[in-house]
Amino acid sequence: MRITRLPYMNLRNLVIFSLLFFCCEQNQSKNQRDNNLEYNPEKRLEQLGIKIPEVSPPVANYVRVVKSGNLLFLSGSGPKKADGSYITGKLGKELTIEDGYQAAWLTGVNHIATLKSELGNLNRVKRIVKVLGMVNSTPEFRDQPKVINGFSDLMVEVFGDRGKHARSAVGMAALPQGIAVEIELIVEVE
Fold first, then answer.
1. Closest CA to 169 of 93, 73, 85, 103
2. Residue ranges of the alpha helices (H) in the chain?
3. 4 in any annotated domain
4. Of 45, 69, 126, 146, which sits most exposed with the smallest number of CB within 10 A?
């Protein structure tokens, strides 16, 4: 059997190819490390001037978070203010889209507080997976997605691309204690 030597695969070219491959692999690993170094949700919260509130105990017979594998399932939460009161009212009646957006944003801050309490370090958030946004609204109100954008926008601002998620935004005839929004979410963690 005769082995044919390919003219372009001499030792010099093999060494050059190996070096190029090694350098590309090293560069890709460095880029991945750099991306991980840049990911710092807690620093981002500080840059945004957002203070994380203390997490209060549940108001009924449930838990705030259930962990299954590498997923966290967060119970529905509402727009609880620092003084313990809630943003209440019905979208399309007492509240504007902007009011609802702020309520959803505040609910996001409260969920981040729950995540911080559960994980200790928000860098462990690998991905915001799924959001269910419920909006207390009149039957005529049709802008539930614009309201829940307050939550979604905050997740992306804090977690970057890891904050982009699948989402449902639905209208409800009523929510507990008359709150403006209630939001549940699923989070993948490391």
1. 103
2. 11-38, 41-48, 97-119, 144-159
3. no
4. 69
